[in-house]
């Protein structure tokens, strides 16, 4: 009876012994891969901690102080946030930022995707066209803004001269509150569309060509293939573009606004990021600027978290 209950080690089935011997190297390989992954991620994680997380926490803390820029600190509690709620210029900048965001992000998405679909086709000089479309993104934003400012200058600018030639002179693109924000949006799209074109192009090239061929055989037209194949399989790329463009639009418009309009005319292009710059470096109110910055970051985090929840991390609602 005891020989049947406790099988000696030498009498164990060969398959069980092989499984035990093979599992140990597999565990060791997984551990080595985990350590290697942690080492590769460590520099990026440390950089995010030092240059992103700590400044965010510091901004929240400084928002509870009055700071004059000369080393003088005075704890004032929530006075900066109360002042923010009663500041009409803050709310004006918030509205301008919202208009800028809800207009620019969809246009960047559509433009980048449309260009990617165009340059995905094979035709002569397609590589040159891709490079030309991407080139503005690698140029300094200040240089781009100065060139566009020169072209849009009243009477002497290239665009103004062309409009005068076709009897449409008298339009001040940067000096009229009706046109200034729209002009900044157009220039920003021209600057960034090549970058997002490359991202969408990478996503398009990952879609198997066999799916399109099968759809053609089944009689699906171009729109049906785009709606049933391209858009669902581009969902992770689309999520990345929407998220990164939103953050870039809200936090990266300072240089463009500073050179083109300086927040004018009549504060019609004064984004929140530009208002933060004004409070911190023109008026010397660093505590108030930090409070506005912390609110802006909190709003971005809430919107990003909502996008993750709604789209299920970029998978949207497609389960098939």
From TrEMBL:
This is Sugar ABC transporter permease. The chain crosses the membrane at residues 37-67, 98-119, 131-151, 157-174, 181-204, 229-250, 257-277, 289-310. Residues 15-30 have a biased composition (Basic residues). It comes from Brachybacterium alimentarium. One of its GO terms (cellular component) is plasma membrane. It is a multi-pass membrane protein. PROSITE patterns: ABC_TM1. GO terms for biological process: transmembrane transport. Residues 94-307 form the ABC transmembrane type-1 domain. Keywords: Cell membrane, Membrane, Transmembrane, Transmembrane helix, Transport. InterPro entries: ABC_transporter_permease, MetI-like, MetI-like_sf. It is found in: Cell membrane. Residues 1-30 are annotated as: Disordered. Belongs to the binding-protein-dependent transport system permease family.
């Amino acid at each position: 009876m005891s020989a049947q209950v406790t099988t000696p080690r030498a009498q164990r089935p060969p398959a069980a012994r092989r499984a035990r011997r093979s599992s140990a190297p597999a565990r060791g390989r997984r551990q080595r891969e985990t350590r290697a992954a942690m080492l590769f991620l460590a520099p990026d994680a440390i950089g995010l901690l030092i240059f992103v997380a700590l400044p965010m926490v510091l901004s929240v803390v400084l928002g509870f102080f009055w700071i004059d820029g000369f080393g003088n600190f005075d704890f004032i509690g929530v006075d900066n946030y109360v002042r923010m709620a009663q500041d009409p210029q803050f709310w004006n900048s918030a509205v301008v930022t919202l208009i800028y965001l809800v207009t620019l992000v969809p246009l960047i998405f559509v433009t980048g995707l449309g260009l990617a679909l165009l340059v995905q086709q094979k035709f002569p000089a397609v590589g040159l066209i891709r490079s030309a479309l991407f080139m503005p993104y690698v140029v300094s934003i200040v240089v781009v803004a100065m060139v566009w400012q020169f072209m849009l200058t009243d009477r002497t600018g290239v665009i103004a001269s062309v409009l005068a030639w076709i009897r449409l002179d008298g339009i001040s693109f940067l000096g009229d509150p009706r046109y200034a924000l729209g002009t900044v949006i157009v220039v920003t799209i021209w600057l960034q569309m090549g970058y997002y074109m490359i991202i969408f192009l990478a996503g398009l090239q990952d879609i198997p060509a066999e799916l399109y061929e099968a759809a053609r055989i089944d009689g699906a037209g171009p729109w049906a293939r785009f709606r049933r194949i391209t858009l669902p399989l581009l969902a992770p790329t689309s999520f990345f573009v929407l998220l990164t463009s939103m953050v870039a639009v809200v936090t990266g418009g300072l240089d463009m606004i500073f050179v083109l309009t300086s927040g004018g005319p009549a504060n019609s292009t004064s984004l929140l990021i530009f208002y933060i710059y004004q409070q911190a470096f023109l008026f010397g109110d660093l505590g108030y600027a930090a409070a506005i910055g912390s609110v802006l970051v909190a709003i971005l985090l809430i919107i990003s978290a909502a996008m993750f929840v709604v789209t299920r991390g970029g998978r949207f609602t497609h389960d098939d």
